[in-house]
Amino acid sequence: MENLWSQKEAEELVKYYRGQGVGRDIAMRVYSSRLLGGVPDLVLHGGGNVSVKTQEKNLLGQTVEVLRVKGSGWSMDTIEPDGLPAVRLRPLQDSIALDNLSDLDMVNLHRTSLVNSSAPNPSVETLLHAFLPHKFVDHTHSNAILALTDQVNGAQMCEEIFGTRAALVPYIMPGFQLAKSALDVFRASPNSEGLILLKHGIFTFGETAEESYNRMIELVTLAESNIPDSAVSDVKPIPDSVPSHDIGPVIRGRCLVSDRENGEARPFVVSFRTSPAIRSYSLSKEAPRLVMSGPVTPDLVIRTKPWPLLLDAPKIDELSNWADYFGRKLQDYGKHYHDYFARNNSNQQTPKIPLDPLPRVILVKDIGLFALGKDLKTAKIVADLAETNIQVASDAERVGEFESISEKEIFDIEYWPLEQAKLGGAARSKLSGKVVVVTGAAGAIGKATAKAFQDEGAEVILLDFSEERLKLTAEDIGGHPICCDVTKPRQVASAFNQITALCGGVDILVSNAGIALQGRIGEVSDEVLRRSFEVNFFAHQNVASRAVEIMRTQGMGGVLLFNVSKQAVNPGKNFGPYGLPKSATMFLSRQYALDYGGDGIRSNAVNADRIRSGIMTAEMISSRAQSRGQDVEQYMSNNLLGQEVAAEHVAKAFVDLALSPRTTGAVLTVDGGNIAAALR
Ligand code: ZN
Fold first, then answer.
1. Which residues contact 525 (CB under 8 A, 6 or more apart)?
2. Distance from Cα 203 to the centre of ligand 1, integer Å
3. Are strands 368-373 and 361-364 parallel, antiparallel or unpaired?
4. CB neighbourhood size of 471 (10 A)
5. Whole-model pTM above 0.90?
6. Which end of the chain is more exposed for a tag (fewer CB within 10 A), N or C?
7. How many angstroms separate the alpha carbon of residue 48 from the centre of ligand 1?
8. What is the pLDDT of residues 557-592, one digit of tens each?
9. Beta strand 49-57 with 63-69: parallel, antiparallel or unpaired?
10. Nearest-CA neighbor of 168 among 148, 188, 196?
11. For residue 141, how far is its CA from the centre of ligand 1 (angstroms)?
12. How far apart are CA 530 and CA 527, in angstroms?
């Protein structure tokens, strides 16, 4: 493990924070926290924590001893001074005298000792930091340390490797008892540089940030040198297996969790990941045992569930058989999870409410892993944690025999209210978990639409042919950009493969990309007309047909939305090349409604007109205004309401149609009122 300490960088940060009135201790604490947090082999997604004992002045100008410890919701790699709430040290340390302290009382002690009443909750490992006498304390879930402690004979192995440099703390779940034991262990070995928490992680400490950091790097490096190198070579694929992007929708459509509030079935975002290490692990003869062994460090369990679901790969042309097989395996998993819950809940003082019985990690042999999350961000976190689980367990097997904490200990962590609190409230917006694809996403209407769907909680994929504009759009509003010319079926197929790999499928398609081509119909060239049909008709068919195929594999319905423009019903002069394919696309929308209504797929269109920076260029708008003897402002608001229509109004219509469960085959007008374009 490389030592990244730079005194120059540390001093620069001290100087920077001094300018903001932040003292040296805190600045150094922030510096080394970020160094540690930036290395995934040490710290992943909110794991690990740090502290410094320092002094602060209170309102009366009195000096108070405080512990500045990582607050919940902050990550070590991006921590700021505000992410280190100040807790008065004295009351924390006084609690050493107690024999017991319930979790509720411990959280209360944390919060009532805060200097700032609105600070975030201090880490659940705050007392451990407070009890140790050192100024700086660092805690990570280092992969290398875990590979050595997650062993049948982990204690003995660690004793041999670390000797007197690190003292060993037997596994106890975080909280008061762990803090007390850690202190006892330290007092018995006061010259140690750190504590190895068996089957959990490592603490190091020192009088300076640098000393504690150096000890972390040295002890982790020592651990690494005791793990033989991996011999994973590129495993050969099983011939004729189904590609991962066809498997995602099968998984996604069958892993639904019912919403606690309205009972509606909610999908997950299902993200695919693979590597030679993942594939070789999935094929190993140890895999069936290892997947049932438990997590490599306890707090992963709240995101990954105790075990992944291990499955055989589907053979080509046998995806529907595999879907049945998957359904049965999922039922078995649910039953196993239910039994695990019942077994462990029966001896709880306060009975727990069971969480959903679905896996979060599905490992398909030789293909890779599928990670389930309430959104893409969560799914990617789950995939990262699953990959770490695989890496550490594989490393541990090369050293000896991997062993996690016991089933009861897993349960205690999974159902620990202080861990569940890390996942945040269950408040989900209307479209959370739904995957929306927007074409022409870099244009005004596309961008506004993507934003509107995001605001409802959906995961939005942005498609556009212009890489540059797409990048700017994604930077501006977020969402996942994929560069794609929707007139090219091969590019469309590839884009949708990327989407299913990323999210597991598609729920809503907003087919919006278009081009405004003009010409007097008797004189316009075939080339212009055909070009317009490519973009304004065939491109819609290209994306809709692929989306429908995925939606049918998922088997949970879907929504198609087309931007057809008022030209589809009310031709504009010399605008035939645009209006003709748009009218065909309006018909296309109805045809999809008719042909796929039985699959629960709804198809609707939006009929918009005169959108500034929409499909019509500024020149086209001003020439149209001129030909009517109006200025641009008059022209833009020349409708029944006398109000200009904005891209946001069109976006709202798309969202409304997506949220209207009994509406299909409809065209929704967004033109401020234009009787000539009104549909009957
Ligand atoms: Zn920990």
1. 519
2. 9
3. antiparallel
4. 15
5. yes
6. C
7. 5
8. 999 999 998 888 888 889 999 999 999 999 999 999
9. antiparallel
10. 196
11. 6
12. 5
